[in-house]
């Protein structure tokens, strides 16, 4: 790929890309945590510049780094989030019943991670196959969970090989993977080739409508090549001979969609009213007009100002600030806002693979959560704001010394932890 022509062509429809959605400057890879012995080395930074296609409205980043490099020694294990596991289990219960899955069916999952989801099908005696590109994560799924897993990237060639080895799945799942593939056409045509004749595809991905509404610029990072509206995804699937027959709006990851797709020629499933309803909702929101996309950058800049104002004022008043979490979105936010250890002393994360390392670009140290009780910061700045309830509950003890929580998105809010714990007690 030649990076001198900026920008290139749309990864779906090949139209020239000319329109900026948002330019977040230069940013390192968000899961490349810096190890202590690498602290004085130069880090690679790449342009975090999202474009929108004026023909199909696919919002996308250019591909600067091959996926094999991103998902090489991958630090993201799905199983460290309780709420995500609960979400996975609820989905498995629901879809098993809806599709009447039994021991003679096959369920395959693309980007199956550490087996966090497929384990619940195994409990129900439904045969599974995981397809996971990161070797260390696939290894873990096989060794620790006993989940049959193929360590490879998915596309048309992989689909044909897997079909001859395992047959075709009755359910093909892809959660938070559609945005992560640079060659979206190869990926979707692979799903078409792999899916059983009466099979169902379900996919979850962050909804671009919610990203724009909620000003979630920090969910833009190099691992996410595409930012998807329902209208555009429906177009991509249709192009590859797949029909979307149902869609649900979910609260996960700041607002996601779950789509249900089938072969176009499979007449056993009718298209439900949810599909035209969401297409209409996006049309009315303006998602088929360029102005919808071009006004986003201005809001992002305003959010950056507010975040920096908070840090500057807190520091001027001698306050201490710790981070919570080391998620991808946190790195976009911190690098774009230029926030380093001058503002945030350290961050904490439950994932032991991240502890002892440093955040990419900003080099903020990552400790285990116990550090917060030891140092008693005035503010805990929550980077994975999509998990704020879970985090505030586990950290509610910060009210003992008058600590407060800070949520940066959609708009910076400072929450009194006392207020939070009372509200939580009432709700539970």
Key features of this structure:
35% helix; 2 domains; globular; disordered N terminus; 428 residues; Rossmann fold; six-stranded mixed β-sheet; seven-stranded mixed β-sheet; alpha/beta; 17 strands
Quote the average pLDDT.
92
What count of domains describes the coordinates? 2
* Named CATH architecture of the largest domain: 3-Layer(aba) Sandwich
Tell me the fraction of residues in β-strands, as a range. Answer: 15-25%
Main sheet specs: 7 strands, mixed
- Give me the side-by-side strand order of the main sheet: 6-5-4-7-8-11-10
| Total number of beta strands | 17
**N-C termini distance:** 53 Å
In terms of per-residue confidence, which ranges show pLDDT below 50 for 5 or more consecutive residues? 1-5
Structural class from helices and strands?
alpha/beta
Number of helices: 15
Quote the CATH topology of the largest domain: Rossmann fold
Q: What would the principal axes of the Cα set say about the shape? A: globular
The CATH C-level class name of the largest domain: Alpha Beta
CATH evolutionary superfamily of the largest domain: Vaccinia Virus protein VP39
Describe this structure in words.
44% of the residues are buried. The model is unreliable at 1-5 (pLDDT under 50). The protein has helices at residues 67-70, 82-98, 118-123, 135-145, 156-166, 184-194, 208-213, 230-239, 274-285, 290-294, 296-316, 328-337, 370-375, 388-394, 417-427; strands spanning 19-27, 46-52, 59-61, 107-110, 128-131, 149-150, 171-175, 200-206, 226-227, 242-250, 256-263, 321-324, 347-348, 366-367, 379-382, 404-407, 413-416. It is globular, with a radius of gyration of 22 Å. The chain has 428 residues and is an alpha/beta fold. It has two domains: 78-293, Rossmann fold; 307-427, Rossmann fold (3-Layer(aba) Sandwich), CATH 3.40.50.720. A hairpin with a 5-residue loop joins β10 (242-250) and β11 (256-263).
